[in-house]
UniProtKB/TrEMBL annotation, chain B:
<keyword id="KW-0479">Metal-binding</keyword>
<dbReference type="InterPro" id="IPR006656">
    <property type="entry name" value="Mopterin_OxRdtase"/>
</dbReference>
<protein>
    <recommendedName>
        <fullName>nitrate reductase (quinone)</fullName>
        <ecNumber>1.7.5.1</ecNumber>
    </recommendedName>
</protein>
<dbReference type="InterPro" id="IPR006655">
    <property type="entry name" value="Mopterin_OxRdtase_prok_CS"/>
</dbReference>
<dbReference type="InterPro" id="IPR050123">
    <property type="entry name" value="Prok_molybdopt-oxidoreductase"/>
</dbReference>
<keyword id="KW-0813">Transport</keyword>
<feature type="domain" description="4Fe-4S Mo/W bis-MGD-type">
    <location>
        <begin position="46"/>
        <end position="110"/>
    </location>
</feature>
<keyword id="KW-0534">Nitrate assimilation</keyword>
<keyword id="KW-0408">Iron</keyword>
<dbReference type="InterPro" id="IPR006963">
    <property type="entry name" value="Mopterin_OxRdtase_4Fe-4S_dom"/>
</dbReference>
<keyword id="KW-0560">Oxidoreductase</keyword>
<dbReference type="InterPro" id="IPR006657">
    <property type="entry name" value="MoPterin_dinucl-bd_dom"/>
</dbReference>
<keyword id="KW-1003">Cell membrane</keyword>
<comment type="similarity">
    <text>Belongs to the prokaryotic molybdopterin-containing oxidoreductase family.</text>
</comment>
<dbReference type="InterPro" id="IPR009010">
    <property type="entry name" value="Asp_de-COase-like_dom_sf"/>
</dbReference>
<keyword id="KW-0004">4Fe-4S</keyword>
<keyword id="KW-0249">Electron transport</keyword>
């Protein structure tokens, strides 16, 4: 057992209002400068939708992340470093700027400076790359709120028959994304220069700006497309988990400014020696459990001892013990990894969105608020569980279903308390929890006080 | 090969500083302290300053503004709101992406850095100024010369702005003001700046200046159509709503036409989180809006039919909870807190008037305003609390809702029955039908009476045994209003669903004692008939005992922003410390007349009537009638300069009021609104700050461009044919163009308004000034502070208006001196004026129905002395009227001697010996000191005064904070909770969440209505004219019938006709931020229209295609966003995208495409013009016609994809 500490994040998608405040505050703080105009370390995608860069999840095209080879060994999906060295000057798996979007501005000055003319002055869009006039036809968030046809969503390939894009059956939710700061980062493994590294003390994955040679293999290697190329400096850049803030005890910009109050930051302790084996389990649907198996119980005496031996400070161990991320991933098991099938062991996890539930069930003639109908309701989710499973569990609906049942049980159990009725302990029992656990989970998810979120 | 691979990787062990994992996958490294100094440097900053955003936004979020090397770098939210308790979520971190992008403006290329003047005008002015030697003479010559005036007016909006100096620009501005006052009168000046709550000092700056001049301040709440007219109608209150933290307390939450994640971004989390307590959430929206994601149920009624759904829900609640079953909590609530038990006369088989003590023959004070109930024995009695007890000696201590032993009968049942004829409007096109239904009646004082409750059951079609008339056979009777099946035919929402939601809503309220809530917003409120829609909503929350209960009731969120320190703000903004009354104007009527939109109404005002009282009259005629009867203000007042009128009165040796009345009666003098197109009645100077009229709120934008500004426009409509023209208002064959002489705008960014302005002054941004900020969404007051000094030549609004005032005063000393002005002030709410019209009977002196008596049958005519040379000195100091008259809010007068003494020491003394408010921080201190919400001494003082009138205990609500006074420094250090005060109807006492009307319910303080209770029944003549005594359903206006537009769904060679809605935008707060590069990068980068997949397919439009939208009002060019989340037959053009960003020329007229409001126009509902009667009395932004815009249709087609600019 080699104990390491990892700074991790959980986002409760059930609370995300899709406002993009996180994206803007992040951009203002970090990438509001030339060379990275098109870069959003944090972005928010409407799902179903193509994402940013578009169709980044299509690993058959981009070949990011890891795959098992015929011998069951973990290999970079895009090919090993040798292959990367051989293709270093012509990286074929790199999204083009149009896949992100061609950044633009407007000739705003004309609004003030226009001479007397026939028509009202107007600011036209100008490419920030070429300076030429352009028609805006793609942006960092083009399909916001289901704008444009959603049928190019990569995840629909396997479940197209279960999703209909009709007015009455509309569904959507938002997926905010930052770098996953993976336990098994394929960006780092893809870098011929060794410029990408994982900080020993907190697991934050960074690009060494001095060592980066701009080969962009990390951009290809990252299946989440969260490493970007600064076309001015010629270096790779990525989300830093706001390490200058985190180091002094302030949450990341995206977390602290999240008005949905849905982001949790905390430490996870894990066994670094177990990562490779976990990332190599044969079935991609086992990866979620395998990754949870890598995490260590920060309260277990042997883990504490091993952690101290590994030089992890006492206050960090305490932080891991009271980590909300640990509680959501391990204790309540309501958070799930994003695309575990990429085998990078991502460390930004998500609570899948619960609602809306009832309006589908009501058509069956039942009062869906009735607790006896709770779980029937989940099977009739407006957001298909199968779609969520494509995101979080490599297609296995069972873990998603289990999370949604817990959330539904929490609402039902708490309604009795809120209305001043006697609590019904059969509700938590049905999802393998006690009333007390439900109540604690409720406090973490609903009250979500500042010092409990971070 | 893998082996070689590994070997290569393995070499990294030797070449890197870090540690490569044994399996070669990962490289670990301690820290990165050197390699990543770039990000550490990026993060470093010199200071963090607290500020916020003062746009037209409810957020009131406190922000950290980061500054490095004297440059603003970015912003992030403050998280230091005081806790709301251990068992609730907190207010941190309020904010949204728009606000987070604000700092982009500071140094952006759209920033207004210097004063600009229209080049053509400036050249003429310089020439004339030099030749004539006098600024006023120079201005007079230019605007007086039709050729010269035309020369600069006709090029408005066409570029050609040139830089000027502050000295030159302000001299020209001052000259324009002086000339206009001298020539036409101060009431030809108007100022527009909306909603002070978000930056009250900035708002007060210009408002104070205009009030000192005698210019008119234009209302905004009604103008924006955000005013729910139902609120004064039902509650006698402008609007009072729960803070967002109170959503947490609700057990059942309906979001009805309010898209919380988009329009209440900082608050939406309360809704998301309350679900975890087991709150059920229902979304009512015609599209799959952002908030639908959170809802347990989604009801998608056809746009504008929300009232039908609510009426059917009311039907179910009344039937199941009042008739089939009696719920004690509900019955007790409606007896005590609503007008349901009050008696109404029946006249000619229709609802008549509220029965009063006068009808009973009681010779008591204010008898016609004391309403009557039946006691348990059926004897008519006059309970405390009605309007008649609010004023006069005998009402002292009796204006309360304490019923004592009295238990009023809800129903008159037990005697005879009678049929009443009730109107229905559900026919296609909204035409009037009738239905006959029976009510139980009694004979009281020789009259046939019933109760409001009985009428309500009849109206809702809830049958009881033994009553005659037509009744629904059951919920599935689709022909009889207002059953669930009936609403399905209107809304498309399944009948059983509507019934079930109603049942759940009421059952939750029954179990939780009133904790069911409806969050309602623009989607329901921006319709022409918003008042009937809202009354049907309020019926649901009131019947179920939810109003005045934490977690229950209405939560109206659109434009409702609360100036918590209202008294202090009002003093500064209205300059009531120096002169009273101010000149206020209902903006919708102002522009309806002055942009000549009234000329394009080809139908009579009687179109909506169920009677014949409006026959032969146009809407403009009704505006004139309302003005001359003193109901609503009208500006300009008369077809004479009011300064000259006063002089003429003096010359004639008559008191001013007598003089005016005599000349009006003679016909020698007329109200200006009776001839709005006569040049002497034009508005001449308009100043806009903190606003973008022409890119945002100007409904009928193209009519503004044509008639007000006199420049190119896109109007295609025809003017009214002779038979539809006004009867009393003079018609000029030639419609004037270019009425306005000066359009002045202060802004920090370029907008349509600045582009069309004659003078643009560069304003400081929200990060460059001191100011105060509040909202009703949370209970804190917090501050603006300059992160940097105003850069380039920008100035704060306070500074800018002080500058203008000084230049003006200097010119005025020579040209104007001291004059007497005549203010024609309407009958005011919360004063005895509201007893001017007993029974809401219309008495038009001009029709010979009564004598013209100022303050009773016509406006008050008040002489006001104006020392124009002293305007600047008065602006900068607090005047002496405060000493003698105090400061009044909602009928409560605060004595502020102690506060003035404090301000003398805190702010210093001005040269005129008065407390100084020379600087913006001084103004902040004055506002805080002079308001009950921020000064516990005043709050308790006000409550004690109210205790004397009501006879109930109140002062304890503020007593816990009697010694607390919030200073500006407090608001700088962190958001500060406010104090419970009689200025508002809810209570924060003991740290509870704010919910409106809690004081009314818990302390039995009456509502400010006729009965003193929440009102279901309105008996004013004009309400009766429209058949709207009770909540009812009126469909959206039929634009085909009214204007000959094609019908929705019609498809021709010009395209397809669709409903045209303009909801709030995700990427802007009104027009602000829509031009911000961050917001443009996260959206479609320019004007866009959302349409359904089906409609797009019909006209061959694909996502992002250029399209053109055309109707009689104008033309829009935009790109299409095609989505299956949109319902067929309806498009959304999110409002206020402005015309300055990527808008090409149109194919239709070859000119620049318009804004969202180029396709809309003003349409005035006559009942919004009522005044002088109980809660239907004017107060600024409290009552007035709404600038609604939702009933419109447009034709949409794909256009050439080759666009030209």
């Amino acid at each position: 057992m080699r104990v390491m500490a990892q700074m991790a994040m959980v986002m409760n998608l059930d609370k995300c209002i899709g406002c993009h405040t996180c994206s803007v505050t992040c951009k203002q703080a970090w990438t509001n400068r030339s060379g990275v105009e098109y870069v959003w370390f944090n972005n928010v995608e409407t799902r179903p939708g193509q994402g940013y860069p578009r169709r980044y999840e299509d690993q058959e095209t981009w070949r990011g992340g890891w795959a098992l080879n015929r011998r069951g060994r973990l290999k970079l999906k895009g090919g090993g470093r040798l292959r990367k060295l051989l293709t270093i000057f012509a990286n074929p798996k790199l999204p083009a700027i149009q896949d992100y979007y061609e950044p633009w501005t407007y000739d705003y000055e004309t609004l003030t400076n226009a001479p007397l003319q026939e028509h009202t002055p107007v600011a036209r869009p100008k490419s920030l790359l070429t300076g030429e006039d352009m028609k805006v036809s793609w942006s960092a968030n083009w399909d916001d709120d289901l704008g444009g046809p959603p049928d190019r969503d990569v995840l629909l390939a396997g479940i197209a028959d279960k999703v209909k894009f009709e007015f009455e059956r509309t569904f959507m939710f938002y997926l905010p994304r930052i770098c996953e700061h993976c336990l098994n980062p394929s960006c780092a493994a893809s870098c011929p220069s060794g410029a990408i590294y994982k900080r020993t003390e907190d697991g934050i994955v960074l690009v060494d700006q001095d060592r980066c040679r701009g080969w962009r293999m990390c951009v290809s290697g990252c299946p989440y497309k969260k490493v970007y190329f600064n076309h001015r400096t010629g270096k790779a850049e990525k989300c830093t988990f706001c390490f200058p803030r985190v180091e002094v005890g302030i949450p990341t910009v995206c977390s602290e400014t999240c008005v949905g109050r849905l982001r949790y930051i905390g430490l996870m302790l894990y066994d670094a020696d177990a990562v490779l084996e976990a990332a190599s389990v044969p079935s991609s649907q086992d990866l979620y459990e395998a990754q949870r198996g890598v995490f260590l119980d920060p309260s277990a005496p042997e883990v504490v001892t091993a952690a101290e031996r590994a030089g992890i400070p006492r206050d960090w161990i305490e932080a891991a013990q009271r980590s909300p991320v640990h509680a959501l991933i391990t204790k309540y098991r309501v958070a799930l990894p994003l695309h575990p099938e990429y085998r990078t062991m991502p460390m930004v996890w998500y609570i899948p969105p619960l609602s809306p539930v009832v309006d589908v069930v009501r058509d069956t003639g039942y009062d869906a608020e009735d607790r006896s109908n709770l779980f029937a309701a989940i099977e009739a989710l407006r957001i298909p569980v199968d779609y969520l499973a494509q995101l979080f569990t490599a297609g296995d609906p069972a873990p998603v279903d289990a999370v949604l049942r817990k959330l539904a049980a929490m609402r039902s159990y708490m309604r009795d308390l809120t209305m001043g009725r006697d609590p019904d302990d059969s509700i938590p029992a049905a999802v393998g929890m006690t009333g007390e656990q439900i109540h604690d989970m409720y406090r973490l998810l609903a009250l979500a006080k500042y010092d409990e979120r971070y | 090969m893998p082996e070689l691979d590994d070997a290569l990787v393995g070499t990294r062990r030797f070449f890197t500083r870090g540690e490569v994992s044994a399996d070669h996958r990962a490289l670990f490294q301690i820290g990165g302290r050197q390699a990543d100094t770039f990000y550490r440097d990026r993060w470093s900053h010199d200071k963090v300053v607290r500020s916020t955003h003062g746009v037209n936004c409810t957020g009131s979020c406190s922000w950290k503004v980061y500054v490095k090397d004297g440059i603003i770098t970015w912003e992030a939210q403050q998280t230091d709101y005081p806790s709301v308790g251990p068992d609730r979520p907190e207010y941190e971190p309020r904010g949204c992406p728009r606000g987070a992008a604000f700092s982009w403006y500071t140094y952006s290329p759209t920033r207004v850095r210097y004063p600009y003047v229209r080049g053509v005008l400036l050249e003429m002015y310089r020439e004339a100024r030099q030749r004539l030697g006098d600024p006023v003479a120079a201005w007079a010559e230019i605007v007086g010369d039709p050729v010269k005036a035309r020369a600069y007016k006709s090029v408005r909006g066409k570029g050609g702005l040139v830089r000027a100096t502050w000295d030159e620009a302000t001299e020209m501005i001052a000259a324009a003001h002086v000339h206009t006052i001298k020539t036409y009168g101060p009431d030809r000046l108007a100022g527009f700046s909306p909603i002070p709550a978000m930056s009250m000092v900035s708002h007060a700056a210009g408002a104070r200046f205009y009030n000192l001049l005698g210019g008119a301040m234009l209302s905004f709440y009604d103008w924006y159509a955000d005013l729910p007219v139902a609120s004064p109608q039902v509650f006698g209150d402008q609007t009072d709503v729960p803070e967002s933290g109170d959503w947490w307390d609700a057990g059942y939450l309906v979001m009805w036409g309010s898209n919380l994640p988009v329009t209440r971004t900082p608050d939406a989390h309360w809704m998301a989180e309350a679900r975890y307590r087991g709150q059920k959430v229902v979304a009512v929206a015609p599209d799959y809006a952002d908030n639908v994601k959170f809802a347990d149920e989604w009801l998608a009624p056809a746009p504008g039919t929300d009232g039908a759904l609510a009426m059917a829900m009311g039907h179910v609640v009344l039937k199941e909870f009042f008739v089939e079953r009696h719920v004690a909590y509900f019955l007790d609530y409606v007896r005590r807190y609503t007008d349901l038990p009050f008696l109404v006369t029946l006249d000619d088989g229709r609802p008549g008037k509220m029965l009063t003590a006068a009808d009973l023959g009681q010779d008591v004070e204010n008898a016609a305003f004391k309403t009557v109930v039946l006691d348990a024995g059926g004897t008519p009695v006059v309970p405390n609390g009605s309007l008649g007890f609010r004023y006069g000696e005998t009402g002292e201590g009796r204006w309360n809702l304490d019923l004592g032993d009295l238990s009023p009968l809800l129903s008159a049942a037990g005697g005879d029955v009678a049929e009443v004829e009730l109107p229905r409007f559900d026919a296609p096109g909204g035409s009037v039908g009738t239905i006959r239904r029976g009510v139980p009646v009694r004979q009281v004082a020789g009259r046939t009476v019933t109760t409001v409750f009985d009428l309500l059951l009849a109206q809702y079609g809830v049958a009881r045994p033994g009553l005659p008339g037509e009744w629904p056979s059951g919920y599935d009777d689709a022909d009889s209003p207002y059953t669930p099946a009936w609403q399905e035919t209107v809304t498309g929402v399944p009948g059983p669903t509507a019934a079930r939601i109603a049942r759940e809503f009421a059952a939750n309220a029954e179990e939780s004692r009133g904790r069911s809530m409806i969050i309602m917003g623009a989607g329901a409120n921006h319709w022409f008939h918003s008042d009937t829609i809202y009354r049907s909503f309020l019926t649901l929350t009131t019947l179920t005992g939810c109003q005045g209960v934490n977690g229950g009731g209405w939560a109206h969120y659109v434009g409702q922003e609360k100036v918590r320190p209202i008294t202090g703000y009002s003093v500064l903004g209205t300059a009531s410390d120096w002169t009273r009354p101010g000149r206020q104007m209902i903006q919708t009527a102002y522009w309806y007349l002055h942009t000549d939109q009234y000329r394009y109404d080809p139908f009579s005002a009687a179109t909506l009537s169920v009677a014949d009282g409006f026959a032969g009259r146009s809407t403009a005629d009704l505006i004139a009638a309302s003005a001359r009867m003193g109901w609503m203000p009208s500006v300009p007042h008369f077809n004479r300069n009011p300064l000259d009128l006063a002089d003429e009165a003096a010359a004639a040796g008559e008191p001013v009021a007598d003089h005016v009345v005599r000349r009006l009666r003679d016909g020698d003098l007329r109200f200006a609104c009776e001839d709005p197109d006569a040049p002497e009645n034009f508005p001449r100077v308009l100043t806009i700050w903190r606003a973008n009229l022409l890119g945002s709120s100007a409904k009928g934008n193209e009519y503004f461009l044509r008639h007000l500004l006199g420049t190119d426009h896109g109007v295609r409509a025809k003017q009214a044919p002779p038979q539809a023209r006004p009867r009393d208002v003079t018609w000029h064959d030639e419609a004037p163009t270019g009425k306005l002489d000066l359009l002045l705008t202060l802004d920090f960014r370029m907008t349509s308004t600045t582009v069309y302005s004659d003078v643009v002054l560069p304003a400081a941004t929200w990060y460059e000034k001191h100011d105060l900020n509040t909202t009703d969404m949370h209970p804190f007051v917090h501050s603006f502070n300059p992160a940097i000094a105003p850069p380039w030549q920008t100035r704060t609004d306070w500074d800018a208006f002080m500058t203008i005032a000084r230049v003006f005063s200097a010119l005025a000393a020579e040209h104007l001196g001291t004059r007497t002005d005549v203010v024609a002030a309407p009958l005011l709410h919360d004063t005895p004026d509201e007893m001017a019209n007993p029974y809401g009977r219309v008495m038009d002196w001009k029709a010979g129905e009564c004598e013209p008596i100022p303050g009773r049958t016509m406006p008050k005519l008040v002489p006001v002395e104006r020392d124009y040379a002293a305007v600047a000195d008065k602006m900068a100091s607090l005047g002496p009227l405060l000493d003698s008259l105090g400061a009044t809010t909602k009928g409560v007068t605060f004595e502020v001697g102690r506060e003035l003494e404090y301000l003398r020491h805190k702010n210093g003394v001005a040269p005129n010996g008065r407390p100084s408010i020379a600087r913006d921080v001084d103004a902040c201190e004055a506002i805080l000191a002079l308001s009950g919400t921020t000064n516990g001494h005043l709050a308790t003082q006000g409550f004690r005064q109210l205790e004397r009138r009501t006879g109930v205990r109140l002062a304890d609500l503020a007593a816990e904070h009697e010694g607390k006074q919030i200073t500006f420094a407090d608001t700088q250090s962190r958001p500060t909770p406010v104090i419970t005060s009689p200025e508002w109807s809810g209570s924060e006492a003991g740290g509870r969440r704010y919910s409106p009307f809690v004081i009314n319910v818990e302390r039995l303080k009456p509502w400010h209505t006729l009965t003193g209770r929440q009102t279901f029944f309105l008996d004013h003549d004009w309400i009766a004219e429209l058949g709207e005594w009770l909540p009812t359903y009126r469909p959206p206006l039929d634009m085909h019938a009214l204007f000959g537009e094609p019908r929705v769904g019609e498809q021709g060679e010009l395209g397809i006709t669709v409903r045209y809605l303009t909801p709030h935008n995700k990427w802007s707060i009104h027009s602000e931020y829509q031009d911000n590069l961050f917001m443009l990068s996260l959206s479609r980068g320019g004007q866009s229209i959302w349409m359904s997949t089906e409609d797009a397919a019909k006209i061959g439009v694909r996502d992002n295609d250029w399209i053109e939208a055309v109707n009689r009002n104008g033309v829009v060019a935009a790109r299409a966003i095609v989505s299956h989340r949109m319902p067929e037959g309806t498009v959304y053009m999110h409002h206020a995208q402005d015309r300055l960003i990527d808008v090409p020329r149109t194919e239709t007229n070859g000119r620049r495409g318009g804004i969202h409001n180029s396709l809309t126009r003003l349409l005035i509902k006559p009942t919004h013009l009522i005044g002088g009667y109980a809660q239907l009395s004017f107060a600024f932004n409290y009552l007035g016609p709404t600038g609604n815009q939702r009933d419109e249709v447009t034709v949409i087609r794909r256009r050439s994809q080759e666009v030209e600019y």
